[in-house]
Amino acid sequence: MDIFEAIKNRRSIRHYKSDPIDDKVIQTVLEAAHWAPSWGNAQCWRFIVVRDKKIKSEVADTLFKVTVDNEKVENAAAGSMKQAPVLIVVCAETGKAGCNEEGVPVTNKGGYWFMFDIALAVQNLLLAAYAVGLGTVIVGGFDADKVAQILNMPKEYTVVTMTPLGVPDSKGQVSPRKKLSEVMYYEKFK
Amino acid sequence: MELFEAIKTRRSIRRYKTDPVDDKKIEAILEAGRWAPSWANTQCWRFVVVRDAKVRAKLVDTLMKIKLPDREIPNPAAAAMNTVPVIIVVCAKIGIAGAGHGSPGSKAQYVTDKGDWFMFDTALAVQNMVLAAHAQGLGTVIIGAFEATQVGKILSVPEGYRVVALFPVGMPDQEGKAPPRKELSEIAFKDKFGK
Prior knowledge:
heterodimer, A: alpha+beta, three-stranded antiparallel β-sheet, two-stranded antiparallel sheet, B: NADH Oxidase
């Protein structure tokens, strides 16, 4: 698939078919993520491929409820996670991205460069999934500590984000984007 | 260019030719950035396209030196930033990514333990942009080690926004090297961490 086509037509998918996904396809998608650049080539990303239904459902239960019309309702992504055959949980090794050799942060973003590096990899992952006919949706609103416990994650790592991976059962909607003129400037921010 | 080819052959480029880069190509890069997904579609990214040689020189002065055991050296991309025709500076509006519905701005209530998600959302856009540059034959290298507040002053970035990263854009004058990647088995696990 042409890269610009992938970038412009990828959508966040919230309904999935339960069709199984081959390990080779998952490997292709993760390899694409792994080719992202990273701070000092630290490659702080780690991916947990969850197929086990029980674990998937436990992780889905950590999603924060959302408030709609003053009422707390289940996050729609929890349903997506249970439908899709695969859930990819993305973790970061802390104290690497944005830090010097001693693990001390060097910029005014502190230790938070792992958020940046993880997202570089995640964007590759989303594009690669789309190119092989699979849907994704980035989920961030969950209790990261609980997910870490469920997945036996050591304390040097933090859970950043996750996405279901599966055959789309609905077309994603186009979220309206700001015009380019609203987000770009020449020479100075004005 | 085919997507997987772009992803696998993109390299960080630290030497550039001085050949000009036309606005259409820059626009295609920014357009790719704009199509990234974002937290509740908040699109916190802002891009400043710098061509002015004086401004570029000022940006170079903000780069942090790299500490070696016995001495400090300039960032290997510093010289390139003076000769490359374009630098794109990526900024972020603070207080929207990662915030709950109805609580943006200075009173933002962040939903997760990561606080503001501006680093994450800008990087989604940046990855699209470096791929889009590469697909058009242009090189980039993402730089994060600079004095962000100084860059903010140079570019008149208003309060409520932060400078996140910058990258030169130009015709590569070298073949970038692929730094070795960890084995997939070191970074991908099944069902639980480490398995």
